[in-house]
Structures are given as C-alpha cells and as structure tokens.
Input
Amino acid sequence: MERMIGFERAIVVDAIQTGAPPGTIHLLSPEGIATQRSASAHDVNLSTALEFGRRAGARLPENNRIQLVGIEAEDTLTFGERCTPAVQAAIPLAVAAVLKALAAERAARSVGR
Output
C-alpha cells in the first residue's frame, strides 16, 4: 500500500492462491480479494488496508483506480529464487494484462481531452 501513496492509478501484480489451476491469471479490484483469514490486524485484505491508509491521511488511488493482476500460484508461503513452471509460463499473460490496462487508460484519457 505504501508504494501507492501519491499516485492516482495503480496496477499491482502478485501471486494469489484461490484454488484455480496454477498459472491462471486473475484480474481483480481491491474488493475482489478475499477477506482476512484471522483476527490479526496484520492479516487484512487490500481494500481494508487501503481504507486504513486513507483514514490515516495517505493520498491513495481510489479502489476503482486500482487493478490487481494475480497469478495463481501453487504455494504462496514458500519463497525461492525461481518461479514454478506454471507461474513462469503465465508471466507473459500477466504482462499482456498490464499492457492492456495501460492502453485502456491512455484511450480513456484521449477521449476525455
């Protein structure tokens, strides 16, 4: 969330685990992320974290100006230097999703001028 401060638009690319086949690309909004799994304040979903940040005075993009590109991972708790083959194969699809979102943003700005 801290990296979004001061920006009007954000695209976040991250691993996600929903039970879909590894390598599946998910296009989500902050509200589309699952709710927290525990009572810990450290385990809040993105939408809640953004709201906390805004209430604390952080200038963050509105939720409708944030797009999440999630790559389904088989395991989101084990860290390594390499992606699994399924995630590696999905990276070009995630890049294409980001480029498509950027092109849509540019087109929308051109129409608004």
